[in-house]
């Protein structure tokens, strides 16, 4: 056993746009997106063990099971590196599930990065990203720790420097699974690829948004309400929606209005304000490992 207790964030993300460009023979969808990392998310505390056991304690009791991506990530790392160490992992959840904010994938990525350091495995970002990819297509962006332009199934990443923005993120009280949306026959799957310039000039959208708005009226209601304050868009396959503001005060003013909205309270909408970041603390943690 090496290392001592480590606390590591697991940031949320937004898809600033999401185009579905095709479907591969294996069923995976090809896409284009921009991942914007946020300074808001979950937090993991990891303590190494010398008996090989992996134990998880989550602040949400329903997530304390073997299907949690934290345990899946830890086991995958153990198996592929033949590590004989274990860990006690405490997960404090703030990112809602089924919201399109990448919570489970981010937790998995931070687990890989944290254990890589505590177990002194000295794996690179790219090696950890390859281990994480089977757990979720957006695990690699969290391992890399940088906001990025994404292609392929979301794993082909090019770091980008995005302008400073504050985001108001709203999450209606409905759980949406990525698999249900991507398997729906009405999903648009033939959007032509674009270049970064087209995104920067506003020529983008979320291909999943029309379908989700139709299937989940609370998402439609949240988007309509938020659009009264700034242009609003859905992230990922939902349920969360977001709007960008140039300054924090404007975003917080809209959040205060949310708390006073009877309509939004009736459908269980919750919100938070976060700043977009081009690099997360996970990136800084990986600086101590080789980066190839």
TrEMBL record:
EC class name: transferase
Pathway(s): Isoprenoid biosynthesis; isopentenyl diphosphate biosynthesis via DXP pathway; isopentenyl diphosphate from 1-deoxy-D-xylulose 5-phosphate: step 3/6
Keyword presence, Transferase: yes
Any GO MF annotation of the entry: ATP binding
Catalytic activity of the protein: 4-CDP-2-C-methyl-D-erythritol + ATP = 4-CDP-2-C-methyl-D-erythritol 2-phosphate + ADP + H(+)
Highest taxon of source: Bacteria
Active site: 13, 138
Protein residues bound to ATP: 96-106
Database matches in Pfam families: GHMP_kinases_C (PF08544), GHMP_kinases_N (PF00288)
EC number: 2.7.1.148
Biological processes annotated in GO: isopentenyl diphosphate biosynthetic process, methylerythritol 4-phosphate pathway; terpenoid biosynthetic process
Ranges of residues in domain GHMP kinase C-terminal: 204-260
Domain (GHMP kinase N-terminal) ranges: 68-146
Keyword list, A-Z: ATP-binding, Isoprene biosynthesis, Kinase, Nucleotide-binding, Transferase
Stored NCBIfam families: ispE, PRK14608.1
Family: Belongs to the GHMP kinase family. IspE subfamily.
Role: Catalyzes the phosphorylation of the position 2 hydroxy group of 4-diphosphocytidyl-2C-methyl-D-erythritol.
Protein's name in the database: 4-diphosphocytidyl-2-C-methyl-D-erythritol kinase
Source species of the chain: Pseudohongiella spirulinae
Taxonomy of the source species: Bacteria, Pseudomonadati, Pseudomonadota, Gammaproteobacteria, Pseudomonadales
